[in-house]
Design brief:
By secondary structure, the protein is α/β, with parallel strands linked by helices. The chain is about 40% helix and about 10% strand. A 4-stranded mixed beta sheet has the order 8-1-9-10, covered by helices on one side. A 3-stranded parallel beta sheet has the order 2-3-4, covered by helices on one side. Strands 5-6-7 form a 3-stranded parallel beta sheet. The chain binds ligand V47. The site of ligand V47 has 24 residues, from β5, β6 and α15.
Length: about 375
């Protein structure tokens, strides 16, 4: 039995029907309505609603970028319990590239279509501020768009950017301005984890707190640097804490407007302390992944894109999620290390042809973008023969 609703798709859950009608008429969901989205048994209607919101925003386009992931070090002093990537200096498996190592690495992965270098690495306790500026500048000079430095790293930089002998704290604004001057074009969304203090204390106690994370992004937006936002889910957080996380991002976006995309990150449960503490060996389920992406698309009505991160939830799930709110499939990535250090079972990269096929088989137009969503090439899906 369908519940009464004006939707152009069936809605069976009577609790969902008024929310569907509200969203279809342009309304914004409240926290309580978000709870209903997370709990409804009517997953097809939830996905159809998210799909409607996606279509209103981007039409039939699904975006990807030709990218390279650079993890120049896995040395990190922060000690987040969910992370299997981190090593201490001198520990087995630790690495730390100097600038020449980085230039050689990038030259090894060079490709005529490579546009974005996304840096994702550790907080090295010894590297000085100039190293990060030189790294950003050097990659920019080689013709790449640098999307780099999470809010947690920006927070770390305010400590190391202080001139010797100075006691004056360096601000987020100063650090970000210098990086922008060196060529930085955007910030990735990492380090957000879950904002709720209860969870943060357990999984990322020594990382920048929620207010600091949001403050860095606000400052970046004010300086004209767009950013992304992530949410790490599938560990100890409650559904209310996921919603609280999204609501804070939505409020920040209302205020400063520079988020380009939201990326839910599914907890990878291998080789990390949190998985051991929880006795967890299973990945998030497809329904949880899909529901989470759909809820994000509906709740985050002011964020242009929801990204399906195929590295963590599989290309197959991301392909299906293109009909449940997702408008971006990230990119070729090439050499992902963080998720794979915690047991990700996917490849560490995909070719552009594979990404285009994934998008086309979902019936969408594949749009190659740069780091700032400028459109570089449009690949319409091939016409299927009727037989
Ligand atoms: O901040 C670490 C997460 C993030 C695990 O901005 C884990 O376009 C799951 O931020 N299980 C880094 N997640 C990756 C990241 C990202 C990814 C894709 C796109 C963008 C973007 C940003 O990875 C970290 C942390 O939240 N992470 N360990 C784990 N075991």
């Amino acid at each position: 039995m369908n519940a009464p609703s004006n939707a152009p798709f069936p809605v069976r859950d009577p609790a969902l029907a008024p929310i569907v009608d509200k969203v279809l008429s342009g309304g914004r969901v409240t926290f309580d309505e978000g709870r209903t989205l997370y709990r409804t048994p009517d997953l097809p209607a939830l996905a159809a609603l998210a799909d409607h919101v996606r279509r209103e925003k981007v039409g039939e386009k699904a975006y990807y970028v030709h990218s390279l992931r650079l993890s120049q070090t896995n040395v990190c002093y922060v000690g987040c319990t969910f992370c299997g990537f981190q090593r201490k200096i001198g520990e087995d498996g630790a690495w730390d590239m100097d600038l020449n190592d980085v230039w050689n690495y990038v030259a090894r992965h060079a490709h005529p279509d490579l546009t974005e270098i996304h840096i994702s690495s550790g907080h090295h306790p010894k590297r000085g501020w100039d190293y990060y500026l030189d790294l950003t500048r050097g990659l920019t000079e080689r013709g790449y768009q640098v999307k780099a430095w999470t809010a947690a790293e920006i927070h770390h930089f305010t400590r190391i950017a202080r001139p010797k002998g100075s006691t004056r704290p360096v601000s987020y604004r100063e650090v970000l301005s210098e990086l922008k001057e060196a060529g930085l074009v955007a910030l990735p969304g990492g380090g957000a984890e879950i904002f709720a203090e209860r969870v943060r204390k357990r999984i990322a106690a020594a990382k920048v707190d929620a207010d600091g994370w949001l403050d860095v992004h606000r400052t970046a937006h004010e300086l004209g640097l767009p950013t992304n936002a992530t949410m790490l889910y599938g560990h100890v957080e409650t559904l209310d804490e996921r919603l609280d996380h999204m609501m804070r991002i939505r409020a920040q976006q209302d205020a400063s407007g520079g988020f380009l995309s939201f990326i839910p990150l599914a907890f990878q449960p291998d080789n990390n302390q949190l998985a051991r503490e929880l006795g967890k060996t299973e990945f998030t389920t497809g329904v949880d992944d899909l529901r989470n992406l759909a809820v994000a698309r509906i709740v985050l009505d002011n964020v242009p894109h929801v990204k399906g991160y195929w590295i963590m939830v599989t290309p197959e799930l991301v392909q299906v999620s293109l009909s449940a709110g997702v408008s971006d499939v990230d990119g070729t990535i090439k050499d992902e290390k963080i998720a794979h250090a915690s047991g990700a079972t996917t490849e560490t990269g995909m070719t552009e042809a594979e990404l285009i096929r994934l998008i086309h088989d979902a019936g969408r137009t594949a749009v190659k973008r740069d780091a700032l969503y400028a459109e570089l090439a449009v690949h319409a899906p091939p016409v299927r023969d009727a037989a």
